[in-house]
Here is the input.
Amino acid sequence: MLRIYGSARSRGVRTLWMVGELGLEYEHLDYAPRSPATRTPEYLALNPNARVPTIDDDGFVLSESMAINLYLAKKHGKLYPKDAKNEAAAWQWSFWETDRLDRQLTTYANNAFVLPEAQRDAAAAKAAWDEIAPALDVLETALGKSQWLAGSEFSIADLNVAAAMVRALSFDLGKWPKVHAWLHRCWDRPAGQKALAMRQ
Here is the structure.
């Protein structure tokens, strides 16, 4: 059976959403980032980076949430583009997100509203937002051409990017109406709603 190590309040939400889309049975070990559970010899043998998520798929161990999701989608033949160009687009958007939005969204959210006010760094929030806004401009332009990122229907590309943007569900995205509509269209899927509930 597939085993998933990683809290839904981490990048693990991306993988938990994916297994929901695929309808897979799995065992979930709710390891939080940087928790003692990620520092045990047993876990470090699986993931020496001590990060989450990690999966053990009947003995095949894999870490890094983007790689995990691309693997699962391709293995199970769902949400993974069959056309080589759309496959490449899915890779493009997955890698783009890790560079342009992943840490920036977390830094902004933490310093804008997540952390207690005394621990927030307004300069860090502004610097992060100054990177997020142009990335959202790029996404808005792409979604003006197609309602999905890699082909004519929801795919791994949409799931990977939207999962990383979970914090943006509470942002004011009025300047980016297509991004707003797309983000909610993705997360409104039943598997998305189930994964979102796991973050509560």
The first helix runs from residue 12 to 22. The first strand starts at residue 2 and ends at 5. The domain at 84-193 is CATH 1.20.1050.10 (Glutathione S-transferase Yfyf (Class Pi); Chain A, domain 2).
